[in-house]
Design brief:
The protein has 114 residues and is mainly alpha-helical. The chain has one domain. The protein has four helices and no strands. The two termini are 28 Å apart.
Length: 114
């Protein structure tokens, strides 16, 4: 495993732990819950694209969107004591989409520049 993938794994584990921690203990940016989701999934998407530079971005997007859906599913379990919301998953998926579109543009510009 490359060090880039190790860093991605750390970000992924932090995101999972934050999402499943009791709400009062979860890290926050001090704004809307959706801002926290957007920040987390923007970060995950950029790190994933960096860790797997040859991966198809659509595959990365689907995997991260599925991760966001899985988090919401886990949050729906009574033992987790968190609120699951479809809007959170939409925020996750939107953030991944925006981040990976930006990665695609940067990669395209770099390829053209030679």
């Amino acid at each position: 495993m490359t060090w880039r993938r190790v860093l991605f794994a750390i970000v992924w584990l932090f995101t999972l732990a934050a999402a499943l921690a009791p709400a009062r203990h979860a890290p926050t940016l001090g704004m809307s819950d959706k801002v926290n989701h957007i920040a987390a999934f923007l970060t995950l998407a950029v790190f994933a694209a960096w860790a797997w530079p040859r991966a198809r971005l659509i595959v990365v997007a689907i995997a991260l969107s599925a991760f966001g859906a899985a988090i919401e599913g886990l949050q729906a379990l009574p033992v987790i004591a968190r609120d699951a919301e479809w809007a959170d998953w939409f925020a996750d998926t939107a953030a991944v989409t925006v981040a990976l579109l930006a990665v695609h543009v940067v990669r395209s510009v770099r390829r053209r520049a030679g």
